[in-house]
Design brief:
Strand content: 15-25%
CATH superfamily: Methylesterase CheB, C-terminal domain
Distance between the termini: 37 Å
Structural class: alpha/beta
CATH topology: Rossmann fold
Number of strands: 9
Strand order of the largest sheet: 3-4-2-1-7-8-9
Radius of gyration: 16 Å
CATH architecture: 3-Layer(aba) Sandwich
């Protein structure tokens, strides 16, 4: 277990959403191959109601879908779901669950997790903001880009609740604005392009770190 926990260099895709997020997740996940080599972490901000996403989403992906528990190891080719009423962090390749750092108002669990990834994850990062109220996640998007990650927002007109994608776009730190289906396809193309440049030792032209922003 200890050796596995030290592996922190594979890509993580964080998908943050809230109200209307289920529609986005079910449209997005089928377009991410099960062997793509990424860990998909769905951070759905829920204050009281327990999540059922780990029961609902398995038909939409061939990857195992797991509800996150304290100390669970991140693994590629898995989908991980945040539980309700917890902030989510990552440390030494494992998930850490803590009480809400923002006890009142809209939770900011997406922002908290993205910042934890920036501080404690050595692999590539893709941050995705989909349907939801408020603007959770937007405050961390510039941090993701500054450390070489890629940021994607759901196209507001395709979202059941466009507030969260709109807030992400207003941050000025979004690379792509896409429908859920195209988000899944874009993640796949990004990873295939990155794998190709790594294999060939080629640094491609991009607006960000070489080889990591194929468009």
């Amino acid at each position: 277990m200890a050796d596995t926990a030290e592996v922190t260099d594979f890509p993580v895709v964080c998908i943050g959403g809230s109200a209307g997020g289920l529609d986005a997740y079910t449209r997005l996940l089928p377009h991410i191959p099960a062997d793509l080599g990424v860990a998909v972490v769905i951070v759905n901000h829920l204050r009281i109601v327990a999540t059922r996403l780990h029961e609902i989403l398995p038909p939409y992906t061939e990857m195992p879908v797991e509800l996150i528990t304290e100390g669970l190891v991140l693994r590629p080719n898995h989908v991980f779901i945040i539980p309700a009423q917890r902030d989510l962090h990552v440390s030494e390749g494992e998930f850490r669950l803590k009480p809400f750092s923002k006890p009142r108002g809209w939770p900011d669990v997406i922002t908290v997790f993205l910042r934890s990834l920036v501080d404690h994850w050595s692999g590539k990062l893709i941050a995705v903001i989909v349907s939801g109220f408020d603007g959770d996640g937007a405050a961390a998007l510039c941090d993701i880009r500054e450390m070489g990650g890629i940021t994607i927002a759901q196209k507001p007109e395709t979202a059941k609740q466009p507030d969260m994608p709109k807030s992400a776009i207003v941050s000025g730190c979004i690379d792509f604005i896409l429908s859920p289906e195209d988000i899944g396809r874009k993640i796949t193309r990004i990873m295939h392009g990155y794998a190709s440049t790594e294999a060939c030792g080629v640094r491609g032209e991009s607006s960000g770190p070489p080889g990591w922003h194929p468009r």
